[in-house]
Specification:
With about 200 residues, the protein is an alpha/beta fold. It has a single domain, classed as Rossmann fold (3-Layer(aba) Sandwich). The protein is built from 6 helices and 7 strands, in the order ααβαβαββαβαββ. The protein has a 7-stranded mixed beta sheet with strand order 3-2-1-4-5-7-6, with helices on both faces. β6 and β7 form a beta hairpin. α1 packs across α4 and α5 packs across α6. The longest helix is centred in the N-terminal third of the chain and has 14 residues. The N and C termini lie far apart (about 30 Å). Bound molecules: S-adenosylmethionine.
Length: about 200
């Protein structure tokens, strides 16, 4: 039995209303997300096929598909409602996307997926609902990477300038430790701003 208590979410992002409300507020609450999206794009120059975990309403996907003409994305999320919002946002770019419905809290979520030139995730890793589950998520993401390919992980962090909940969210140092525990040799902090931190792990 685990010796920690998972943090329940106050919203259910599989419900149409909750998903729509989250999407309506995301860029207003944190307009600096665009700076992170630019940094993702910079890191993915040359990548052909990329998996995004917890892709939600497709903000990052749209940004990347517009910036990188060679890119194809697999969008992984457990919410049909979020995938529907992403379809609307992507418009004709949808032809470069494969939607995957699945739950990354399941132990075997990565088993049937192919390898990618990068795995990326934005504001979604904490959806494992406790920081102690982060190494397992990162390990599975790592199993999907081609040799030398990056894992780009952006999420809220706990501590000064970040979130108060230190059970749901990892500090920057705890996130780095979770990446190391998952087997990554390097974990570089690329950008930290407005409560978000972006790492590149290999
Ligand atoms: C806070 S939203 C972030 C969405 C998007 N990455 C963005 O930054 O605009 C978190 C996303 O993770 C998805 N999610 C939550 N738990 C999940 C799980 N266990 N498996 C897969 N997706 C999940 C939600 O449906 C939602 O789309």
């Amino acid at each position: 039995m685990q010796d920690f208590i998972e943090v329940e979410s106050p919203i259910d992002l599989r419900q149409t209303e909750d998903a729509a409300q989250w999407a309506a507020e995301a860029m207003i609450k944190r307009p600096w997300r665009t700076e992170f999206f630019d940094r993702f794009a910079q890191e993915l120059a040359g990548a052909q096929r990329v998996l995004e975990l917890g892709s939600g309403p497709g903000f990052l996907a749209r940004h990347l598909l517009d910036a990188l003409p060679q890119l194809r994305l697999d969008l992984y999320d457990f919410s049909e409602a979020m995938h529907a919002l992403a379809r609307e946002r992507l418009g004709v770019q949808e032809s470069r996307v494969r939607f995957r419905l699945g739950d990354f809290r399941q132990a075997d979520w990565a088993d049937d997926l192919p390898s990618f030139d990068a795995v990326i995730t934005n504001q979604a890793a904490h959806e494992v609902r406790h920081k102690r589950h982060l190494p397992a998520l990162h390990r599975q993401a790592r199993s999907l990477l081609r040799p030398g390919a990056p894992y780009l992980l952006c999420d809220h962090f706990a501590g000064e300038g970040g979130m108060a909940d230190d059970q749901l969210y990892a500090t920057v140092e705890e996130q780095r430790a979770a990446l190391r525990e998952a087997g990554f040799g390097e974990a570089d902090l690329l950008l930290q701003k407005g409560g978000l931190a972006l790492f590149r792990a290999r």
